[in-house]
Amino acid sequence: MTETSSTQVTSAAAETAAEEAEKNSSTTRKGATRRRAKSASTTTRKAAGTRKRRSTKAVPADTPDALIPAPVLEITDPSQFGRINVLDVTPNEECGVYPARVELGEQFTVTAQVFIEGRAKVGATAVLHTPRGRAAASRTMTCVNPGLDRWTCEMQVGEHSDVLPWEDGFAAVKRQLGNWSLVVEGWEDSFATWLHDAKIKVKVHDSDVENALDEGAELLGRWAKTRDAGLNADQKKVLQAASETLANKELTPVERLAAADNDEIAALHDSNPLRDGVSPSRPVKLLVQRPKSSFAAWYQFFPRSEGAYVDQETGKIVQGTLRTSVSGLERAKAEGFDIVYLPPIFPIGVTNRKGRNNTLVAGPDDPGSPFGIGSTEGGHDTVDPLLGTMDDFKALVAKAHELGLEIALDFALQCSPDHPWVKEHPNWFRHKPDGTIAFAENPPKKYQDIYPIDFNADMEGIEKEVVRLMNLWIDAGVTVFRVDNPHTKPVRFWQDVIATVTKKHPEVLFLAEAFTRPGMMRALSYAGFTQSHCYFPWRNTKEELEEYLGETNSDDAFYQHNTFWPTTPDILTAYVRDNGIAGHAVRAVLASMGSPSWGIYNGFELIENRQRPGFEEQIDNEKYEIKVRDWSKADEYGIAEMLTSLNRIRREHPATRSYHNLTVLRSSDPNILAFARHTPAEFTGTGKPDTLIVVVNLDGHNAHQSLIHLELGDLGLPTDQGVALKDELTGREFTWGWDNFVSLAPWADVAHVLSVQY
């Protein structure tokens, strides 16, 4: 990752620059912007909103050409260029139709092409505007590829917050959410161009050196008077004094030039530059979403298994309820998770009910799949009486809120043959030629206990009903919906539903359980799904993981927020099956450190890794039966402790919060994967940078050694001394440099999570 230096810049209206150009008719040319190795803080300033840009009036006819600044050209059509050319601003997909999405306080990257004709140099500033059009923050960009005129910087909308939707402080968070805009302003860097030329002329005793120094005196004087530079009184005095020294012909050219070529003036050039011919790009839309939209830790359990036990007299299992599910909340809290995801809690159908391990015939004591929704007792608006009542659910939500946990409810838009909709809305289902309703299929899987919805006859009516249902559960305290198989429903349907729900409840988040083609997953993200399940469980080799980490943590993440789950009730891969405790630890480290959003399905702590023969899912699957677990055995495996440590690291380290700050590191062993996350000081809230280096042994059976290469400068680390590191998992300390030896063994340390000690 390239470390960029930032500059405090005002975002004054372009007409202000034009007025100053009229008053101060000295000229400047652009020059390569001098950058400091330090990182300066982002500045938020009051500034005029977006206005029509006016061109400057004609300057006096006798003004030397060299002293005429670049004008601000009027732009009346989006296709017109300004005086400086700005193209290809990112993030920006699908011609800007869908806004890029970031969480409040999330670090992200802005890039653009910025250039001008000839050899003149340019600068660039990225400016964020609030939904009301006020310029709220700006940052000077750095040219990272001069040959391609590519400029970049890191930005942040607001500050990270842990305030929850039901807490008093959320109103202040809510005011910062919504549709922001990003503009890249290109400008002529007149000072740097002049300084570049003047230094050469003084060095070679050029015959035109007097003109060059006089031009510099005029330029610094104009800089001191320019409102756009945002100078305070002391800074203006510095520039004015330098201007006077440049004009003092009693001094030697070397002495005169020194007044402008020094650290103090360079610092002002970094922080408060003279910007001529300011030319804005077309605005790029940003959707700023609330905390947990990107950075979240999920924990899933089935309420009917929480508190379940075997009756010693009958030998039968007594299922858990919403009241006994408090134990699941407490376990999630103890392990450091912040969203508890509950599978469907609605009544389960009887017709074609599935038995254990998805058998077609259920036994008398088989509870059925909670995804076979609906019975004579009700549908999606009813709590399964075996779990409790709506009041019991509200009490569970209240307890979760007391613990600082959000409740995510599974919304599976499908019905059992016994669902009230089958009789009330028969046109919502697809009928075969013989008049029967078709059950759900995902070949080779068949779901005889489920009727899928047919959206062709009455999509508007279905939308209204789904919005009603979601509002009912939101009123009961739900703040997140995990939607089952949304890719089997029309994207437009979800777009309409999510837009309607979030218009009234912008705090509500949506997780898509969509394991499907990339185009559909992206479309669902465009439609409003906040996060998405993804193919992380099947990315297990070093090559696969390096590619997938890069894909997840890239510009794609402005639209699709992948959440990493090692297992789910539907997924148990061969890797987790075959690599035991070490494999569980490896996948937990990769999931929690590899994505800002990750999740754990309970039982992971107990190494529940036996597959149903021929299927990538657990045998004795909890979807079809009630699990009685002995949680006291979790201490034997150490995975619960590992999960707790990983969530602590995530809370303490801002570098884990962004989808835009991961760099894969070079390692010499094919079983050792390494990557780093880096957040500059101005985005951490602590005043210090935050850097994590994660090294993982992917082999759950054998020890491996590797050299890990760090590009120290790219990570903002010192290049002339050792870097002090602390392993956040063990507390051990190390000193690293450019190339570093690592040895990891599954019976000792499967991974390092190293934090740089600044």
Automatic annotation (TrEMBL):
Span of domain Glycosyl hydrolase family 13 catalytic: 296-650
Superkingdom of this protein's organism: Bacteria
Database matches in Pfam families: GLGE_C (PF21702), GlgE_dom_N_S (PF11896)
GO molecular function annotations of the record: hexosyltransferase activity; hydrolase activity, hydrolyzing O-glycosyl compounds
Keywords attached to this entry: Carbohydrate metabolism, Glycosyltransferase, Transferase
KW Cell inner membrane (keyword) present: no
Catalysed reaction equations from the record: alpha-maltose 1-phosphate + [(1->4)-alpha-D-glucosyl](n) = [(1->4)-alpha-D-glucosyl](n+2) + phosphate
Active site: 484 (nucleophile), 513 (proton donor)
Entry function: Maltosyltransferase that uses maltose 1-phosphate (M1P) as the sugar donor to elongate linear or branched alpha-(1->4)-glucans. Is involved in a branched alpha-glucan biosynthetic pathway from trehalose, together with TreS, Mak and GlgB.
Identification of the protein by name: Alpha-1,4-glucan:maltose-1-phosphate maltosyltransferase
Organism of derivation: Bifidobacterium vansinderenii
Gene: glgE
